[in-house]
Amino acid sequence: MADFKTHLYGAAAASGLAALGVYSLGWTTTGHAQLLFLHGVAGGLLPDIDAPKSTPVRGFFALLGVVLAFAMTFPFVGRYPLIGLGAIWLLVFVTVRFGIFALFVRYTVHRGIWHSGLAAIAVGLAGVVLSHQALGMPAWQSWLAGTFVTLGYLTHLVLDELASVNLLGKRIKRSLGTALKPFSLAYPGASLAMLLAALILGALAPPLAPVLAVANHYGLATPALSLDLSLDLRPALRAAGDWFTLDLDRLLGGPPRGSLPTAEAGRAAGG
Question: Structural domain tally of the chain?
């Protein structure tokens, strides 16, 4: 199995190349490309959250504890004194960092469902939802961020599989095939739970219409993915397109910007 540094460097290399690629194609800004890189690196460390003594799992639950502690304490500001707020914050943090962490470790197995393609999809969808709802990214950016999370995640799984093959000794370790698998046959309940999580996250994800509009602009969408982009979708598509300075009126087959009469101009012409 590849170690922490190998996964960190591997995810950084894959995400860095991908971020440079999308930036060179003009799909994103410098700042957003750097954010995509961080998404990919984070995704490359996430599969090992099922290893109880690994650095990623301890860091993940510590960060989760801090975030949830603040999120659950802020609503009580002004209602309780500072010492009471501190007690709430500490209670939430300890519960998440040690209580939920202990439950997670007890019911997860290393190289189980978290080392699978299904988990890579679910975690990527989680990245899409969090980027859109927590970070306020437009739909196109959110889906791109989720794609980078999945890219980093799959990089981790591939590195684990490569570490299972000893080319110098010409032997294959027993761990071969335990990382890069579609889902976990050994733990069907965990696989079903992960599938359910992926379906829920997919339902919570932003619509794909703005994504396909941008993809069509760059010639990436296939005819099977083409949409009938009616007028009621134009505001959402323009919001996505403005980030990339696309002329969506031309893209959607409408008249150039500025040629549509405004409401004031229509009233003036009528009277």
Answer: 2
